[in-house]
Amino acid sequence: MSSNKQRGHSMEADLLPTSSAQTPTPSSQLSSLQLTAATLTQVLCATMLVQVFVIINNAEFTFGNVDNTGFSLDKESKKVFNAHPVLMTVSFVLMTVGKLAFTLPFITNRLSRPKVKVVHGSSWLLALVSSSLALYAVFASHNVESQGYKANMYSLHSWVGIAVFAAMIGNFLIGSVAFGFQLVSPETRAKLMPFHKLFGNLIYYGWGVAMILGLLSRSWILSCGYSVTEADVNPVAHYNDLPETCRQMNGLGMEVLATIVLVSVASMKN
Ligand code: HEM
């Protein structure tokens, strides 16, 4: 595996004016393990998108009400909550693209560094838009009379989620001002870059945690589980006793975890 500098990812390159960094960012120096991890990440991203649609189209997810499957952004619609997990999953996929923009071969082999930076910034911008709509959807599903009022911010999921979302706004603004539009001096950019990278990583991992906690919240609301009359010494044999929607949500949570592991391997440095 080559050093980060050889790959053209060096911090110095991020601090240069865009015109000084026109060379493509080759990814051929990634180890075969990292290339495999990057490929599997793309497969998992597609799988998560399919999985979340399968979940919100399963009537068990909507307490058995077939009319409430699918999703909507109309605050009066009973489907509005479902937009929350869908758009949060879309955000996670977009963040994955943003995080790996400097690593994924199909991006770096085709585009010059300034264009890769545009892909990186646009992915995070779209993730921000998508998650803002996702938050609108969940608050609408709790605060509109026709939905039946529900408490807000009662769960650990909601507090972790709002904290990570706030951090994302901050990191996006600093990244845009300092590195996107380069409105600060090179010295300030040099000081900010390690923090931008650190918070980018924390936000990405925190997002995964928030998603898993969100799936857990919904599993709790849906009372996921099954009854036993003797010691459950072989739970695998009984796994299908869990309602299908619960198994599907467990699957999505494990896919989030696997994506985080693979993304970490793909972006690993010497
Ligand atoms: C598949 C992913 C997700 C699922 C299944 C999910 C599920 C839920 C559920 C069931 C609620 C209402 C109950 C509660 O507050 O726990 C909720 C609320 C909330 N979620 Fe998520 N969520 C997901 C992803 C996320 C993510 C990634 C974030 C932010 C980073 C987030 C932020 C919030 C916030 C702030 C609330 C509170 C809204 C309120 O209290 O009205 N969620 N989510």
From TrEMBL:
One of its GO terms (molecular function) is metal ion binding. Residues 46-268 form the Cytochrome b561 domain. It is found in: Membrane. Its cofactor is heme b. Residues 15-27 have a biased composition (Low complexity). Residues 1-27 are annotated as: Disordered. The keyword Cell cycle does not apply. This is Cytochrome b561 domain-containing protein. It comes from Triparma laevis f. longispina.
